């Protein structure tokens, strides 16, 4: 099918996760994404293993965030490399970078410099703390931003419980959210350029994004003036909405309204709980959670997780297991939706990837290209977009300005 961003070309100077995640999202939507990497080493995450793709030294981490891109290895510290980037920029609509604030100015690759050669360029900068402010000069990493931005204060067992300490989320969620916000901003900027003819400079900060996605917890604080506390797997505004131990594992119950709670009580054999004024409404259940939760927990210990799942699903009470990733990718719904995909890889022969979750007109949106090897497309891209010939490419590669052109 024709993809929404066909005809859009993106120059991706970013590395690690937030920027590459933005680039991968744009590639899945149909954009041509050119990933610029350091000759010889490439994106830092290429070496963030094990695990490695079979028969290669390509890390699973790198593979997770670079589908759909073509890799061009260019030395940005070399004046000739900088000139190549400027020539590529003229042929592109969007540039993504996540260098420290001011880091690209010394190379003449900052927004103001590139705007001079490409006036309608959309230039997306991703940093830890933004382009201005007292922390702007600092480097930012997902883990520390989860801490600084409040997420870790909300995640983990309650204070005083066994194993109690603030916890990070098990994936680099702040980076991923920042990548998605960046992609969303690029789409808005492309639409604005279509209307006005003007490009612009997008400023995305991990810390801003982390605070922005605190959602109801941020408003819980701003409304009450009381910082929310860690609740383990419980919910601050809904009860019961947490994980409970069963006879053989755990069960997540997510009761969203009072009628679901009444049906839960019937399945548990405790219908009287739904008529108790302390538990009849969600607001009451939140107030008296310390009384209600132990009663539910005691009941659930009496049967296996799968038995409870069958009984609760039969009456429409939302619930689910806590799956390990082997069970996730074996789940019939995940398999039906095609969330695992396979692509041909130039070194391994095949690579397993996770599908983009967007479906458009019944079809998944996934880029056609697998994650690239380092410098795999240097010659191809520089010939097509800059007009270099084989002799010039060979000379630039000999001098270390580019890499991979002869592969």
Describe the structure.
The chain has 407 residues and is an alpha/beta fold. Helix content is 37%, strand content 14%. A seven-stranded mixed beta sheet has the order 6-5-4-1-2-3-14, sandwiched between helices. A three-stranded antiparallel beta sheet has the order 7-8-9, covered by helices on one side. Helix 1 packs across helix 6.
Task: Please describe the structure with a list of short key phrases separated by commas or semicolons.
single chain, 407 residues, Rossmann fold, formyl-coa transferase, domain 3, 2 domains, 7-stranded mixed beta sheet, 14 strands, 37% helix, elongated
SSE layout and pairing:
Elements: E1 9-12, H1 18-28, E2 32-37, H2 60-63, E3 69-74, H3 79-90, E4 94-97, H4 111-117, E5 122-127, H5 142-148, H6 173-196, E6 200-205, H7 206-212, H8 215-224, E7 241-245, E8 250-254, H9 258-268, H10 282-287, H11 289-300, H12 305-314, E9 319-320, H13 325-330, H14 332-336, E10 340-343, E11 351-354, E12 359-360, E13 363-364, H15 378-386, H16 390-398, E14 402-403
Parallel strand pairs: 1-2, 1-4, 2-3, 4-5, 5-6
Antiparallel strand pairs: 3-14, 7-8, 8-9, 10-11, 12-13
Helix pairs in contact: 1-6, 6-7
Entry summary:
This protein has 407 residues and is α/β, with parallel strands linked by helices. The protein has helices spanning 18-28, 60-63, 79-90, 111-117, 142-148, 173-196, 206-212, 215-224, 258-268, 282-287, 289-300, 305-314, 325-330, 332-336, 378-386, 390-398, and strands at 9-12, 32-37, 69-74, 94-97, 122-127, 200-205, 241-245, 250-254, 319-320, 340-343, 351-354, 359-360, 363-364, 402-403. The protein has a 7-stranded mixed beta sheet, sandwiched between helices. Strands 7-8-9 form a 3-stranded antiparallel beta sheet, with helices on one face. Strands 10-11 form a two-stranded antiparallel ribbon.
């Amino acid at each position: 099918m024709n993809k929404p961003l066909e005809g859009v070309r993106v120059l991706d100077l970013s590395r690690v996760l937030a920027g590459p995640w933005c680039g991968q999202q744009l590639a899945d939507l149909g954009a041509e994404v050119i990933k610029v990497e350091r000759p010889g080493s490439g994106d830092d995450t290429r070496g963030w293993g094990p695990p490695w793709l079979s028969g290669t030294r390509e890390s699973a981490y790198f593979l997770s965030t670079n589908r759909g891109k073509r890799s061009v290895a260019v030395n940005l510290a070399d004046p000739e490399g900088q000139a190549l980037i400027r020539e590529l920029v003229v042929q592109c609509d969007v540039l993504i970078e996540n260098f420290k604030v001011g880091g690209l100015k010394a190379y003449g690759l900052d927004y103001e410099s590139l705007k001079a050669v490409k006036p309608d360029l959309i230039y997306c900068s991703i940093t830890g703390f933004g382009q201005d402010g007292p922390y702007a000069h600092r480097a930012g990493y997902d883990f520390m931003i989860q801490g600084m931005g409040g997420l870790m204060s909300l995640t983990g067992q309650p204070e005083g419980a066994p194993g109690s300490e603030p916890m990070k989320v098990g994936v680099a969620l702040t980076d991923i959210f920042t990548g998605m916000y960046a992609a969303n901003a690029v789409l808005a900027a492309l639409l604005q350029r279509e209307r006005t003819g003007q490009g612009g400079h997008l400023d995305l900060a991990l810390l801003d994004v982390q605070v922005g996605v605190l959602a109801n917890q941020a408003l819980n604080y701003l409304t009450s003036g009381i910082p929310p506390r860690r609740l383990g797997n419980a919910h601050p505004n809904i009860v019961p909405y947490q994980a409970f131990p069963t006879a053989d594992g755990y069960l997540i119950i997510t009761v969203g309204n009072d009628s679901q709670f009444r049906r839960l009580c019937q399945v548990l054999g405790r219908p009287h709980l739904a008529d108790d004024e302390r538990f009849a409404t969600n607001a009451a259940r939140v107030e008296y959670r310390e009384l209600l939760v132990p009663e539910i927990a005691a009941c659930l210990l009496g049967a296996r997780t799968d038995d409870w799942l069958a009984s609760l699903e039969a009456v429409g009470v939302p619930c689910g297991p806590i799956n390990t990733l082997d069970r996730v990718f074996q789940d019939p719904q995940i398999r039906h939706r095609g969330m695992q995909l396979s692509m041909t890889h130039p070194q391994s022969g095949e690579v397993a990837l996770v599908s983009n979750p967007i479906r458009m007109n019944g079809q998944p949106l996934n880029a056609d290209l697998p994650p690239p090897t380092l410098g795999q497309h240097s010659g191809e891209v520089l010939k097509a977009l800059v007009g270099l010939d084989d002799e010039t490419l060979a000379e630039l590669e000999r001098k270390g300005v580019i890499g991979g052109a002869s592969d």
